[in-house]
Amino acid sequence: MSLRGARDLIAFGRRAATSWHAAVPLIPLVLLGELVLCLLIIKVIRYTPIDFKAYMEEVEGPLVHGVYNYSLLRGETGPLVYPGGFVYLYGAIRWLAHDGTDVLPAQLAMAACYVATLGAAIACHAIARPRGLPPWALLLVSTSLRLHSIYVLRLFNDGWAMLGFWLAVLAFLRGHWKLGCALYSLGVSVKANVLLSAPGLLLLLLQAKGLAGALGHIALCAAVQLGLGWPFLRADFFAYLRGALGGFGDLQQKWCTAAAAPRLHAHDCTRAACACACACAPLRMCSACTPRVHTACSLHLRARMCRMRTGPHVQHAYGMLALPSRRSVNWKMLPPALFYHRAFPLALLAVHLLCLGMLAARVWAAKQGGLLRALQLVPRRALHPEHVLVTLVGCNCVGVLFARSLHFQFYCWYLHGVPLLLWRCAALPLALKLLTYALLEYAFSYGLDRVEGTSTSASSAALLLAHAIILYALCRAEPPPTYADERPPARPLARSD
């Protein structure tokens, strides 16, 4: 290569790193490289069994035995605590994985999910082209050790939920609000953490569609949830609501090491003739059972075994389960008496709501004179893409920042939006932005206990510092233009349906 050719290549690299116009043609190459990297990880690094087996057991009841009562659907880690869309999605993955015995097809599906999520997030930023955010900053996401592990080595359902979120954001940026609401609701149906961004979505719907239009789009979201959950709602309405919105109950007893082996007796089950056989092999029918009786009995015993594993021997003095903090990434530096105090989650919730109100008034609705004035005006106008992206990503991130308990897989909830939040704040120097990302990676990927593999007080303190910087950047960033006609449209705009 000649000297002139090398100079031209370097100049092109600089333009691609700093200009979205030059970077967009290179996005397919970035995604192809990520796909190859995921395949190499699958081939070289051993799969880590954490939740996948439990997922397969949780979807077995409705898909194999026709049992739709959520109170009977449990896996080895506890009760099913995800909405109905999770059952259909992992039912399909169970079929691909040959009833969960072959994990490779599931890993390949998760690799596709990882690349699709990254592609959707990059596409959202390419459309909005936020001020101050260079294209190269998004490549930081691709360097995350933990993010790749969450998808292709541990197969958590969080990745699928966030794929629905980013596809919904992409639809909103293109002005397809009905499609976006349907995709958003599909993401919620896999895991309810997507609802962290719901306050921001409500504000956007009011700004773009007015009160009547917002109610119509909310009804569309509800219709999707009703359609996916109907078989479970019909079986037991309240059991489905408790399970689908059960929070993070799947992690309550999973890491328990002190639980005694449950002692089962035949009289614990009303069908005593098959109790012992079902307890030892829940999926093998004994001679005293009909298929339907066996299914109900085995699910009953599995539920009882899970309840016994979370018995009084693992209860904390404050009446809450002490186990979530063992794998919680944040607040590990706090003394247990404070972390488990009943006032602690209430205080976090209060600060969370206060922060959302402040951001809504001073950032997301600042161009309209504040939140109350914005809700009074609500003209039907096309929203600016940057406003849509900043509102949804910021609202989602605030929910994570004030969470009482974060687990390693929750990293994918907000990492794709961290560069946007940091680089939009002109008050932050570049070194501090890079340091913030390094602190996040240290907390989630590197600063772990060498024996247990859990977070440490130092890693939790690093995470708290990174979150404080992100929150500062959120509050200090210049408010984006609310509507597309507030300045000359130098980039693609979000249209209205």
Descriptors:
two-stranded antiparallel ribbon, mainly alpha, 1% strand, 497 residues
Characterization of the model:
With 497 residues, the chain is mainly alpha-helical. The protein has one domain (33-247, 339-486). The protein is 60% helix and 1% strand. The protein is built from 21 helices and 2 strands. It has helices spanning 3-18, 20-23, 27-44, 52-65, 84-96, 104-128, 135-138, 145-153, 158-173, 177-190, 198-235, 237-244, 275-280, 291-309, 336-339, 343-364, 371-377, 385-401, 418-423, 430-446, 457-476; strands at 74-75, 78-79. The protein has a two-stranded antiparallel ribbon with strand order 1-2. A hairpin with a 2-residue loop joins strand 1 and strand 2. Helix 6 (104-128) crosses helix 8, helix 9 (158-173) packs antiparallel against helix 10 (177-190) and helix 20 (430-446) runs antiparallel to helix 21 (457-476). The longest helix has 38 residues, at 198-235. It starts with a helix and ends in a 21-residue tail after the last helix. 43% of the residues are buried.
